[in-house]
Amino acid sequence: MTSRPRVSERSFIRAAVLHKTFKADQAGQRECIGLGALPAYRANDSVPRHALIRSPGRTTPYHDDQAGMTWTPSGLDCFPGRRPGGWWCAVLLLWLCVGPAAAATQLVVRGGDDAQRENIERYLQAVLAEDLPDAQLRARARAEGERALQALGHYRPQITLGLQGGREARRLEFRFTPGPPVRISRLRLELRGGAVDDPAFARLREQLPLSEGDVFHHGRYESIKSALHNLALSRGYFNAAFLRQRVELNPARGEAAIALIFDSGPRARLGEVSFSDTPFRQRLLERFVPFEAGTPYSTELVAQLNRRLLDSQYFADVRVRPRTELAPEDAVPVDVELSARDKHRVNLGVGYSTDVGARTRLNWRRPWINDRGHKVGVELELAQRRQSISGTYDIPMEDPLRDSLQLQTGWQRESVEDVETERVTLAVQRQWSLDSGWRPNLFLRFEQERFKVGLERGTTQLLIPGVTVSRTRSRGGADPWWGDRQLFSLELAEDSLLSETDLVRLRLGTRWLRTYGGTHRLQLRLDLGALEAGDFSDVPPSLRFFAGGDHSVRGFAWQSIGPEDEAGNVVGGRYLASASLEYSYPVLPRWRLATFVDIGDAFDQLNQRDYKVGTGFGLHWSSPVGPVRLDLAWGVSEDNPPFRVHISVGSAL
After folding, report:
1. DSSP 3-state assignment of 24?
2. Which of 78, 121, 153, 381 makes a 20 to 30 Å CA pair with 316?
3. 247 and 379: one domain?
4. In the prediction, which pLDDT does 414 show?
5. Residue 367: inside a domain, yes or no?
6. Distance between CA atoms of 392 and 432, rounded to whole angstroms?
7. Is 36 left (phi over 0), alpha (psi -120 to 50) or beta?
8. What is the pLDDT of residue 328?
């Protein structure tokens, strides 16, 4: 099968780039600069810089003891023993800026696979950047092409070069057959020191990018060594070193034997954590530290400390610095510099949804009000159908990020269809956040509510202890492409305990979102509810169940589905069951076309359900602040299907 040629149209201009100064291999200690494009290394892998340095006039391969391999010199020009500087640098730079440019040389690479052709192009970039005579260009191109293939494990390629045109416009055709690859006949990796019993190194050994029988890929060989070094440093083996790193190549037999002996030395331990001056008590700051002094060193634990301090919202800037250079052999002290956040934070938001109409929300918070880290916040919402104000006082407990005690108060007025309510609440609740992602919440809430539901008017008060357990998982930021949400809620009331009726209220809900093939997005929703009360007329509308609206059954107005009184007013029910299925597909960047079907009902008797069905299509925009959904829906379960436009903002979860 004939391979597809790769053509590079780049014009390589002399003096396009002045590279940084590099140091050569340890033996020569040469310093050098290079002109033109950097010769990129081997098919998305890296190689030590010392392996990419050429001495002036040197054309034969040399053995690099540090890399443990024989390397062919590459295309950087070196100036032994001196650093660029002085008057001649100014002359050189002037020549670079105004000197004549070399003409473009077109490169065509034929043969092999994509990875081989791409690597050859990378190697030849530096050669094409130089204005070389034809004969020298051929020789250099062949040498660099051989090196490019050797990096991928092919040491016996067949190469044919064709050069057409004059120096002002040349076309270099590089044809090759890679030949049989060199495969790894033996791979020996021996660990010594603390790494022998470290499970992280055991996992690394199981995931090595090379194994016996694989093609000897230089970049992957280097990545093994880098991975060992990086893992050692991240886990506190600061004296780790290779005792042996050797590759024995036999291109004629197509074999490579690798021997690596890595001594990690002892593992350091984390020492005491010292905080800079802050307005907070030392005891509060210490509760953010996720480790005890003497814990084996881990950069993940250090990073976790940094994240926890930032997530607290107490600090505008956090800098965590392990003092490895000052540490004794078995302890690493950790210094933390903190800058407290401003005491006042104000957020203003505006929005619109079909359910509540246009709305404005103002949120004021003090991230901290004393040295114990207590917080306070007030939120005001003004919408066409709902107005509310609430306040929260937050007290951090043993784990400030995962355990808090909250005192809450609020007032809300709502007017929807046949229901008008005005409610005052006082509550105390304890919240936890578990490692599994679940968030249990215990609360005790007192509420007094005046209401008008159809022809019914009343005032009721309830003391409600309860529990909620929820979990939300998502990927994709403000507009997630993957996620799910689960909610369980149980509320109780007893007429002998400051309540006007006995009450048991249960609520279950789930949201599920997945995207398949990067385009096909599926969303499922299910909501169930049940309510038992001694006297249903004493149950306020805020605790009854309704269906319909943007997040229930589209095609019907918000809270327009449920049992009705004798005048036809919707008064809410004892039970709720609703579900939704939605599919969407991208039609433009950030725009998706959706189709959906919703079903649901609120009812008083389990054997007297009258499910309403809404279906339609929508256009969803992934805006910078989150998804904006425009849905057109019809209530197809009705004899004369109603039509409604639904607009909502926010995540489907």
Report:
1. coil
2. 381
3. no
4. 93
5. yes
6. 16
7. left
8. 63
Length of the chain: 653
Q: Is 98 exposed, middle or buried (0-12, 13-18, 19+ CB in 10 A)?
A: exposed
Q: Are residues 335 and 349 in the same domain?
A: no
CATH number of the domain enclosing 235: 3.10.20.310
In a domain, 1, yes or no: no
Instruction: Decide if 562 is inside a domain.
Output: yes
191 and 155 in a single domain? The answer is no
Q: If you average pLDDT over residues 321-345, what whole number do you get?
A: 87
Taking CB atoms within 8 Å and a gap of at least 24, the contacts of 38-41 are 38/125, 38/126, 39/74, 39/75, 39/76, 39/122, 39/123, 39/125, 39/126, 39/144, 40/122, 40/123, 40/125, 41/122, 41/151, 41/219
Q: What is the DSSP track for 180-197? A: SPPEEEEEEEEEEGGGGG
Residue numbers of the domain that contains 187: 183-263
Q: Is 508 within the bounds of a domain?
A: yes
Indicate the Cα dihedral angle 70, 73, 74, 80, nearest 10°.
130
Given a contact cutoff of 8 angstroms between Cβ atoms, the answer to whether 464 and 432 are in contact is no
Give the C-alpha separation, 581 to 524, whole Å. 5
Where among 291, 324, 340 does a domain terminate? 340
- In our burial notation (b when 16+ CB lie closer than 10 A, e otherwise), range 500-529 reads bbbbebebebbbbbebeeeeebebebebeb
Query: How many helices (H) and strands (E) in the chain?
Result: 7, 31
State the Cα–Cα distance between residues 491 and 447, nearest whole angstrom: 13
Residue 129 DSSP symbol = T
Domain count, the chain: 4
End residue of a domain, out of 325, 340, 355: 340
User: In the predicted model, what is the mean pLDDT of the chain?
Assistant: 85
Helix or strand or coil: residue 48? coil
For residues 124 and 166, state if they share a domain.
yes
- Mean predicted confidence (pLDDT) in 571-600: 96
Q: Hey, how many other C-beta atoms are within 10 angstroms of the C-beta on 607?
A: 5
Same-domain status, 202 and 62: no
How do residues 24-77 score in pLDDT, each as one tens digit?
A: 333 332 222 222 332 333 333 433 333 332 323 333 333 334 344 433 333 333
pTM for this structure? 0.73
> What are the tokens at 106?
């077109």
